[in-house]
Design brief:
The protein is an all-alpha fold. It folds into two domains: about 5-95, no CATH class; about 95-125. It is built from five helices and no strands. It starts with a helix and ends with a helix. The relative contact order is 0.13.
């Protein structure tokens, strides 16, 4: 692994985390965060678009450290939902319909189930 790639991921990650923090604060001031997690939705949707754009442009002369810094670093800190969405989209484009559906359904069902499990465990530990 090249040092330039590691540095690009670190810088991208720091910037992505700061952008996520700023976006959450800004969006939550504008909307009632108790009724709808709009900040997470907005950040995830922006991340989906940006990662799709980046993947689409990756064959157009972006240096590898820049690609990894933006995709894994910046967008990885901003949201991992973008990776999930692009993995489904690229498999769909390649006509791996069942794989795309399985990834989508498994992430949704298992992810939500594990979120419930984590909440339940936290509540039981807090007693």
């Amino acid at each position: 692994m090249q040092v330039s790639t590691v540095v690009a991921v670190a810088i991208g990650g720091a910037c992505g985390a700061l952008c996520r923090f700023g976006a959450n604060a800004t969006i939550e001031r504008a909307f009632d965060k108790d009724h709808l997690p709009i900040a997470t939705f907005c950040v995830n949707m922006v991340g989906c678009f940006l990662l799709g754009l980046l993947v689409g442009l990756s064959s157009h002369s972006l240096p590898a450290p820049v690609q990894v810094g933006l995709a894994t670093g910046f967008l990885g800190s901003l949201t991992t939902f973008s990776t999930y969405a692009v993995e489904i989209a690229t498999r769909s484009e390649n006509r791996y319909w069942w794989t795309a559906a399985a990834i989508g359904l498994a992430n949704l069902v298992v992810g939500v189930a594990l979120a419930f499990a984590g909440l339940a465990l936290a509540r039981s530990l807090a007693k």
